[in-house]
Task: inverse folding
């Protein structure tokens, strides 16, 4: 008895690609490291720097101030899912979008410093922020390089076959 799944490519299970899984692992490690580091330094005397886990939990309140950088986190999760599932094009799109959102934090001039909604000016960014950016930018660059290498290699193979 023949299975219909063999004949319909959209329904056939995809074999995850080892490179995209490695990219996912790199992104996950960088992201987890970023959770332990200081993120944004805000002034007015106290020079507090919340940790990455705090920014992950409460960063969505940035929407109130026009900062949409927190939405890079769900995009990173979706990109990692695509990478593990063997869909490197989807992973590349999500990693690229997450890269743009993480870098949009560079334009933020003030952040909410407490639960009461008080704000403080941003005076610097900690290494946790840069690790968070790296968790999106590094996989994007790796996947772009991999796609470029794949296209160049495919062109050579087709040229040699002629």
Result:
């Amino acid at each position: 008895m023949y299975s219909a799944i063999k004949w319909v490519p959209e329904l056939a299970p995809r074999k995850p690609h080892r490179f995209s899984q490695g990219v996912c692992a790199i992104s996950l490690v960088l992201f987890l490291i970023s959770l332990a580091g200081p993120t944004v330094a805000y002034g007015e005397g106290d020079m507090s720097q919340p940790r990455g886990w705090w920014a992950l939990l409460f960063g969505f309140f940035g929407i109130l101030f026009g900062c949409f950088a927190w939405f890079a986190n769900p995009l990173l999760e979706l990109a990692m899912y695509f990478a593990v599932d063997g869909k490197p094009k989807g992973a590349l799109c999500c990693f690229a979008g997450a890269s743009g959102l993480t870098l949009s934090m560079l334009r933020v001039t003030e952040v909410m410093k407490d639960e009461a909604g008080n704000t403080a000016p941003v005076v610097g960014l900690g290494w946790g922020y840069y690790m968070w950016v790296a968790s999106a930018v590094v996989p994007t660059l790796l996947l772009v390089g991999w796609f470029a290498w794949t296209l160049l290699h495919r062109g050579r193979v087709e040229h040699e076959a002629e």
